[in-house]
């Protein structure tokens, strides 16, 4: 495959044109995970492990009140504690010109997204000014607290973490406590206390949005039946593995940063802007990261740049490295938590399962997801309407994580489940009936696929068939509330679906560097928080260059200036695979040119390894360059490179290429239809005595387009199951209703699921090749934990015969539903 | 973490002596999985000034049958008790309670003495830096009453406190009619928590240490069972748990001992249910009636009514499993 | 009264067959000493309150939580930290990497040490034994199913080795 793809060639709506027929390394099972040896032997370094000589530790003061102003602050006692090296106050001069987050950058700072998710074709109605809106996530260090745990007042740097903590306790603050509001519905009542008058002095509304397609009232008239129901989703949080920290060290007017972020490059840019530094004076280290699922890596979250600025200022003051770190409780305030949502649905449908209209009224705390997106993106429902409103309340910022489709996936699931239940129909049939895109049906989508070079496969149909077989759906699914097992428990089966979310957007660049021993380094910003990008990108490069996998590595933990799109995260392979693919193809071309071109110096000419040939005469396999017409004429890649690089007057300069790629789709851009689907099935047993729900089996079926690394894809499937079931049954951020103090800011009271809490997960990958990514891949991982609450909810309904549409579906709610079902005469 | 002095006692006498020296301001440390957490969070209004380590006192981790009773040393580790054949065969409620306590790692550190003496797990009590100076810490209020009380008591308060007792082994020991021997006296396990002092979690004096748990050997036709309900299958404290011991006379109940925990400030013995069962066979109807009786006096708070159903369910499960 | 009068004390910690003499304050946890003072950074801090298993070390053969253990009480105890599996080239390392029993890797040392403690006691565990042993280890990435295969694979190497 020697076609040269133009670097700037952008074909956003077309399938990857240059896919080979067979793969040696891509798609193979049984490859050792490249980061695995380091991680399993405790040798992998994380930011939390970084310790530099002379380093001091910095803690930021968390507000004890959910809404309060600092009237006066005395830091003398803290400063006087032996071992305390510096105290940064919110009113210090270094912070005077940098009160707000990321204001000047391309990002919409504050608490809303940078990527267009928050802005729907300009139809938003901000209830506040843009300036005010950008402040939503707070300032670097402020004198006013908008939530309990808000980093305010002061940051203390001391010789040890415990001294920093002790010093925080010595800061004397006179607080003015202000009225607070903790629930978005309360926040909207007339006369409600103002959560943040600095953002909105009139009311607690932040943002409103109305979306309409078609005519829902007409759609309801056309329906055979119209139903109404409500759902609530309480907030849950990242609870990331490694509590976040950073380290900053000045070397003259240069800076070194150790960062724990998904998009550390963005953190670097914000730091540069705020501190008045050019980007080329910043060296950025990105060690391995404990998982944060995008909820620990967004530029507008406090830790991403607020913490950097604090570390940066203190490090400059002290001339020493500063590590600012969160303890576990801090992480519950400063990382993402998905919003409290109250959603009302009105749905019209025909007897055959065709849905004619969907209307959603959605009220979220602080920032949520609309709820209508998946109806737009993968159904043929022609009439849709959304009323969306964000209300400010005195809790930590909301921001989505794994992923921003949480509420969108849940809303789709709830509507389909309720329709199927009303009709007494198999929900898989209702799903297939309504599959489509942007209000158009599968016939239209089929045409689109053909026109744009995609295989024309029925992704949802295939996923459902695989899943039904795996869970024995046809034999086990039954009418709701009708099956009691011999052990006394209520048996339930659930199904849900949506598109296989591909976050294919943005730009990426990467370099491929070939050392003079023939081994290769991939150069690009890493952000290893568990997605095995290391191995999969090496697979791509090895495949494209014809190298052994063992000869390729991707372990630059320093930012070399090449930035991948949310590396190791959302847009990972869906975008970034193009870039390593393209760079590898260029590198191979260069290698073959090296193999066939003489090196001419002034008096000497060094012949190439293959003197009488052109690059097209050669190919590479297993790290050996060979003549296509006679493979017995060959030379190890290492030798080719060595001869090319060493015969240059003693230098060892490696062979180097790079590539750049831009993906077309941007958030809600129309016309780039999503074709890959996923189908999830679950089997549960509900204990009618306790309300406890046992998850016996989850069957994950995801159309990933093409799996570069099947085990990695499966890891996302079962990994997402555990997070999803936790969200469905137990994960919830709990506040004291009077004071807004977070009551379960620790990993005992906030329930992260254990090994014992799901019996079996079954993983199936479908590969239709209908992704926009390189090789027709789609990606996987974002939209798994998003769909699992829906499938568990459906299974519980099937077990009980009554809905529990209040997530998490804790025993109290399940017992209530069982009671209601009994009164309704079921069983 | 709060600072404190630390002493290693080589004998129990030395430990008692140190406790007396600190006059209520020192705590014994055994496994440490409870007290270390409290100190890390600086949760108490008055943290102990010193910890007295008794792990170096030899010979306190035994399990043996003697004098027609089972004797367990206070430092016996929960993981060892969970796998102890003697317990599994003859005192299964305790073996199961030990097995279901916390996590494997905590069980490899935690002792039975520590488990029965543990502090409250109420989130208002445990918040760092004494954020809520509640009644149990010398303050005035119980914040759970009008606050977040989904895990709190369904049988009302004790001296205005609504936090539940979190132990899994305590209800098993009570159902098994255990006694606690200390450096000063022998106490019925059922009386171990009836303290008048709101800041304490047992009747132990500040210079008193548990030296042995004694469980009477059950009669031949006796069964005991333990069940625990929690949101997760491991690590979690109980939302509700229940231990039952039934001694049979033929196929009717001669004596029933039931103990619920995590439903009240102290482990809760539903005496009316126990009395009701005497002379009756363990059938679904009798067991149902017993469960209803047991929860008759429940006074749920705003958010914890569901625990009543769970408690009934666990009583029925444990009783029927004793058949 | 104790010689240190209740204050800091010099302890000798036997870690991975090496002796480390260090003066410790009473309130220092074993994890802090291992990770921060002795630079053995494999033992991780995740919850810091004994609820996740990430800080697991093996002490006198038992898998315990170093974040809830006071270093001052560890005189004379035989301690193994995760670095030992690298030093000894324990089959768990390759088995974990082959089975993808990690994603971000932050909790992995805790799992590996818990698994090692299991295999040290029982070199031929079944699936239930493995779940019993690992049910206290939290993995936010949800890698749980992969650990079964990894530990079973490691156990075959151990048995074969014997």
Percentage of helical residues of chain C? 25-40%
Q: Within the largest sheet of chain C, what's the order of strands?
A: 2-1-5-3-4
> How many strands appear in the DSSP assignment of chain C?
5
Strand elements of chain A, count: 32
The parts of chain C where pLDDT drops under 50 for at least 5 residues are none
Q: How can the largest sheet of chain C be summarized?
A: 5 strands, mixed
Percent range for β-strand residues of chain A: 15-25%
Our count of helices of chain C gives 6
Largest interface: chains, residues each: A-C, 55 and 55 residues
Per CATH, what is the topology of the largest domain in chain A?
Aldehyde Oxidoreductase, domain 4
Work out the count of structural domains of chain A: 3
The largest sheet of chain A is: 7 strands, mixed
Structural class of chain A: alpha+beta
Strand content of chain C: 15-25%
CATH class of the largest domain in chain A: Alpha Beta
Structural class by sheet pairing and helices of chain C: alpha+beta
Average pLDDT of chain A, to the nearest integer? 90
- Alpha carbon gap, first and last residue of chain C: 49 Å
Word description of this protein:
The complex is a heterotrimer of chains A (827), B (323) and C (162). Chain A is 27% helix and 23% strand. Chain A is of the alpha+beta class. A seven-stranded mixed beta sheet of chain A has the order 3-6-1-14-11-12-13. A seven-stranded mixed beta sheet of chain A has the order 4-8-18-17-16-9-32, with helices on both faces. In chain A, strands 19-29-30-31 form a four-stranded mixed beta sheet, with helices on both faces. Chain A is globular. Chain B is an alpha+beta fold. In chain B, helix 5 (92-99) packs antiparallel against helix 9, helix 10 (271-277) packs antiparallel against helix 11 (284-294) and helix 11 (284-294) crosses helix 12. Chain B is globular and about 55 Å long. The mean pLDDT of chain B is 97. With 162 residues, chain C is α+β, with helices and mostly antiparallel strands. Chain C has two domains: 2-81, Beta-grasp domain (Ubiquitin-like (UB roll)), CATH 3.10.20; 85-158, [2Fe-2S]-binding domain (DNA polymerase, domain 1). Chain C contains six helices and five strands, in the order ββαβββααααα. Chains in contact: A-B, A-C, B-C. At the A-C interface, helix 1 and helix 19 of A face helix 2, helix 3, helix 4 and helix 6 of C.
């Amino acid at each position: 495959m020697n076609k040269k793809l133009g670097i700037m060639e952008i074909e956003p709506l077309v399938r990857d044109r240059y896919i080979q027929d067979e793969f040696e390394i891509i798609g193979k099972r049984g490859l050792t995970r490249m980061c695995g040896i380091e991680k399993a032997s405790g040798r992998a370094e994380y930011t939390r492990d970084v310790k530099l000589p002379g380093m001091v530790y910095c803690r930021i003061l968390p507000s004890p009140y959910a809404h309060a102003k600092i009237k006066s602050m005395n830091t003398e006692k803290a400063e006087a504690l032996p071992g305390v090296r510096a105290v940064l106050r919110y009113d210090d001069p270094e912070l005077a010109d940098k009160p707000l987050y990321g204001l000047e950058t391309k990002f919409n700072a504050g608490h809303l997204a940078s990527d267009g998710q928050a802005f729907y074709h300009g139809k938003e109605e901000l209830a506040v000014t843009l300036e005010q809106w950008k402040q939503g996530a707070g300032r670097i260090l402020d004198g006013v607290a908008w939530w309990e745990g808000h980093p305010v007042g002061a940051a203390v740097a001391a010789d040890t973490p415990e001294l920093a903590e002790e010093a925080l306790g010595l800061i004397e603050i006179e607080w003015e406590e202000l009225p607070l509001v903790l629930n978005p519905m309360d926040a909207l009542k007339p006369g409600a206390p103002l959560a943040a008058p600095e953002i909105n002095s009139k009311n607690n509304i932040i943002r409103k949005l109305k979306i309409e397609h078609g005519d829902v009232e007409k759609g309801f008239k056309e329906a055979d039946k119209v139903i109404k129901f409500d759902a609530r989703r309480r907030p849950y949080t990242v609870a990331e593995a490694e509590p976040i920290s950073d380290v900053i060290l000045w070397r003259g007017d240069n800076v070194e940063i150790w960062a724990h972020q998904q998009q550390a490059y963005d953190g670097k840019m914000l730091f540069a802007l705020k501190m008045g530094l050019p980007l080329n004076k910043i060296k950025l280290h990105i060690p391995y990261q404990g998982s944060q699922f995008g909820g620990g890596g967004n530029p507008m979250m406090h830790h991403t740049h607020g913490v950097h600025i604090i570390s940066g200022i203190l490090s400059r003051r002290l001339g020493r490295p500063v590590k600012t770190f969160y303890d576990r409780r801090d992480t519950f305030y400063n990382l993402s938590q998905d919003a409290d949502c109250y959603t009302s649905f009105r749905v019209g449908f025909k007897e055959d399962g065709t849905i004619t209209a969907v209307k959603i009224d959605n009220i979220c705390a602080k920032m949520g997801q609309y709820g209508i997106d998946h109806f737009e993106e993968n159904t043929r429902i022609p009439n849709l309407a959304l009323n969306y409103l964000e209300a400010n309340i005195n809790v930590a910022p909301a921001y989505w994580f794994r992923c921003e489709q949480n509420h969108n996936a849940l809303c789709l699931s709830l509507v389909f489940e309720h329709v199927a239940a009303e009709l007494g129909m198999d929900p898989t049939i209702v799903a297939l009936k309504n599959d489509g895109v942007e209000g158009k049906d599968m016939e239209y989508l089929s045409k689109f696929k053909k026109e744009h070079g995609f295989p024309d496969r029925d992704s949802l149909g295939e996923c459902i068939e695989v899943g039904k077989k795996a869970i024995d759906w046809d034999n086990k699914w039954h009418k709701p509330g009708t099956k009691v097992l011999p052990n006394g428990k209520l048996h339930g089966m659930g199904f849900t679906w949506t598109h296989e979310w591909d976050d294919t957007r943005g730009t990426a660049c990467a370099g491929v560097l070939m050392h003079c021993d023939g081994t290769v380094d991939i150069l690009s910003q890493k952000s290893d928080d568990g997605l095995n990008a290391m191995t999969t990108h090496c697979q791509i490069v090895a495949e494209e260059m014809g190298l052994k996998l063992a000869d390729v590595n991707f372990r630059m933990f320093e930012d070399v200036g090449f930035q991948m799109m949310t590396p190791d995260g959302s847009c990972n392979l869906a975008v970034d695979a193009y870039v390593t693919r393209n760079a590898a193809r260029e590198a191979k071309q260069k290698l073959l040119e090296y193999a066939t071109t003489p090196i001419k110096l002034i008096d000497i000419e060094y012949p190439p390894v293959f003197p009488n040939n052109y690059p097209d005469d050669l190919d590479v396999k297993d790290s050996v360059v060979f003549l296509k017409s006679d493979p017995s004429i060959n030379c190890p890649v290492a030798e080719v490179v060595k001869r090319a690089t060493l015969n240059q007057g003693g230098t060892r300069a490696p062979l180097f290429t790079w590539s750049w790629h831009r993906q077309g789709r941007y958030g809600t851009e129309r016309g780039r239809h999503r074709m890959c689907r996923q189908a999830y099935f679950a089997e549960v047993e509900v204990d009618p005595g306790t309300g406890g729900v046992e998850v016996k089996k989850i069957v994950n079926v995801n159309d990933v387009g093409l799996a570069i690394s099947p085990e990695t894809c499966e890891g996302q499937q079962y990994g997402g199951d555990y997070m999803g079931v936790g969200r469905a049954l137990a994960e919830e951020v709990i506040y004291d209703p009077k004071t807004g103090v977070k009551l379960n800011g620790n990993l005992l009271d906030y329930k992260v699921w254990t090994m014992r809490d799901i019996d079996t997960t079954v993983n199936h990958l479908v590969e239709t090749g209908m992704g926009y990514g390189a090789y027709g891949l789609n990606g996987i991982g974002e939209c798994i934990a998003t769909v699992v609450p829906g499938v568990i909810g459906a299974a519980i309904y099937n077990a009980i015969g009554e809905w529990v549409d209040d997530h998490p579906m804790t025993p109290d709610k399940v017992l209530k539903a069982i009671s209601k079902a009994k009164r309704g005469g079921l069983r | 973490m709060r600072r404190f002095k630390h002493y290693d006692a080589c004998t129990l006498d030395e430990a008692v002596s140190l406790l007396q020296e600190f006059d209520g301001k020192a705590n014994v440390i055994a496994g440490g999985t409870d007290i270390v957490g409290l100190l890390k969070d600086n949760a108490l209004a008055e943290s102990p000034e010193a910890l007295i380590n008794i792990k170096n006192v030899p010979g306190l981790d035994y399990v043996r049958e003697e004098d027609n009773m089972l004797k367990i040393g206070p430092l016996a580790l929960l993981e060892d008790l969970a796998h102890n054949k003697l317990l599994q065969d003859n005192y299964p409620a305790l073996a199961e309670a030990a097995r279901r306590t916390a996590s494997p790692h905590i069980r490899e550190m935690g002792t039975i003495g520590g488990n029965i003496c543990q502090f409250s797990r109420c989130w208002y009590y445990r918040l760092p830096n004494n954020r809520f100076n509640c009644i149990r810490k010398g303050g005035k209020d119980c914040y759970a009453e009008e606050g977040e009380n989904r895990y709190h008591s369904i049988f009302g308060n004790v001296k205005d406190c609504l936090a539940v007792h979190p132990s899994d082994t305590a209800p098993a020991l009570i159902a098994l009619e255990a006694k606690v021997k200390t450096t000063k006296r022998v106490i019925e396990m059922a009386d171990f928590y009836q303290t008048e002092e709101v800041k304490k979690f047992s009747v132990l004096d500040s210079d008193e240490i548990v030296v042995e748990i004694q469980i009477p050997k059950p009669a031949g036709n006796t069964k005991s069972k333990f069940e625990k309900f929690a949101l997760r299958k491991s690590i979690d404290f109980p939302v509700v748990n229940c231990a039952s011991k039934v001694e049979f006379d033929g196929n009717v109940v001669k004596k029933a001992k039931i103990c619920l925990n995590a439903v009240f400030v102290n482990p809760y013995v539903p005496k009316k249910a126990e009395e009701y069962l005497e002379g009756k066979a363990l059938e679904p109807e009798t067991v149902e009636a017993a469960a209803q009786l047991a929860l008759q006096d429940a006074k749920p708070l705003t958010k914890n009514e569901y625990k009543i159903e769970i408690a009934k369910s666990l009583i029925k499960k444990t009783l029927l499993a004793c058949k | 009264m104790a010689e240190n009068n209740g204050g800091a004390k010099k302890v000798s910690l036997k870690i991975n067959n090496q002796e480390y003499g260090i003066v410790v304050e009473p309130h220092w946890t074993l994890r802090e000493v291992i990770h921060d003072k002795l630079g053995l950074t494999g033992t991780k801090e995740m919850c810091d309150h004994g609820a996740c298993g990430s800080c697991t070390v093996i002490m006198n053969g038992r898998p315990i939580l170093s974040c809830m253990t006071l270093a001052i009480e560890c005189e004379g105890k035989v301690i193994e930290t995760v670095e030992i599996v690298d030093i000894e080239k324990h089959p768990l390392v390759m088995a974990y990497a082959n089975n993808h029993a990690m994603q971000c890797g932050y909790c992995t040392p805790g799992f590996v040490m818990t698994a090692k403690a299991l295999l040290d006691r029982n070199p031929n565990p079944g699936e239930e034994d493995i779940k019993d042993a690992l049910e206290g280890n939290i993995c936010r990435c949800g890698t749980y199913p992969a650990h079964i295969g990894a530990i079973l694979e490691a156990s075959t190497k151990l048995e074969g080795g014997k």
